[in-house]
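Example (one chain per record):
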Amino acid sequence: MIFRWNMVNFAVTMAFGKIYLFPSLLAPGHPASVLPAANIALISEVKYFVVEELRTARRFLKSCNRAIDIDSLHFEVLNEHTRPEEVDAMLAPALAGHDIGIISEAGCPAVADPGSDLVAAAQRRGVDVVPLVGPSSILMSLMGSGFNGQSFAFLGYLPIDGGKRSAAFKQMERDIRHRRQTQIFIETPYRNNKLIAELAATMPAEMLLCVACDITGPTQTIITRPLKSWRTASYDYAKRPAIFLLYS
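Predicted structure:
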């Protein structure tokens, strides 16, 4: 259930609870095959959760431990539609001594994820934040790319506007050439193929593009090729979650 908690519902205590950042799965599967047992044991004890998507979070929790009584848990939804003034109120359980778990739609909370807003609020109030080990598509794609892992930038989604998008491409090329920095970015899955074609047509032919798709899933592929090879390669990444990396 969604429980709209409020500061007035909690008595103030001297000891704050903690904010646990629980990584979730990147692809369909069983948490026990991907996540540490300690994560699953801890998540079974938490009663308050801030999640990006309620249905996904409930399903994930039940797959972690079928004994979890989902109806006894309290959920708040934090996503791109949440107003900034609502975020601080989500700390109420922690300020009253209860632990809160943050769960992203996929992968690591607070990385390219609205959960970072609650983490920032917790830091301002002096509430302990505990990130836990789990899969990160960004880091896993970098690991598999063969690119520079000491200097890299995650850019999120590139601009859609033509002029701003062209400027972003040029800036990436400069950062690769002058800073030797791997450039990492994402795209809305149905536009993946268009993005690859666009990069191959406009960026230097010898520059390397890695496409890391379906990370941790049974159809995972991580392929690095020069852009001139992507121009003639046969591929179809439509509607599949992918990470894109550029380097030279």
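Caption: DSSP finds nine helices and ten strands in the chain.
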